[in-house]
Here is the input.
Amino acid sequence: MAILDGNEDMSSAPSPPSAIVKVLKRLGEIQQHYLDRVTPYTTGRWIFCVLLFAVYLLRVYLLQGWYIVTYALGIYLLNLFISFLTPKIDPASLDDGDEDGPSLPTKANEEFRPFLRRLPEFKFWYSASKAVVIAMVCTCFDALNIPVFWPILVMYFLFLFALTMKRQIKHMIKYRYLPFSHGKTKYKGKEDTGKVVSS
Here is the structure.
């Protein structure tokens, strides 16, 4: 064990963060502030994302290129969508005899359990918007404009989409869950009568 003299330098003290680290931290705080402010506006966020995607598609159409980037964006968005539709805990992974873990109700008289997604809606929106912005930035670089016969990519993407959605819909039917709340039965609690119950 080394003993420090008064003359030795205290090099073990942490150095103050550099200016770049401070700027990046401040930009992260600003970004988080605006993300927190737009969180409640679900419809507005998705309108923004769809408009951003439409601008990207218009850019690709007018430039007549970057089909590989568009294909990669489509595959990524499809993966996000599948994660959005999938329950957080996959019922297929639970054993039939295992009652310890949470599961989806399979009978009408079972307790109501809310549908928990693997990918929450906000993270889905944020990841999709980020991906479209990154794809739009990629269209600024000619090196990423790889020549390809785009109808094959479209056909392959449509085939992949149909196959993936067919598998997801079969999974939803088999385990009897619906990932959307529109059209579901809404339960009301007992009304408060205002009576004081004495024990």
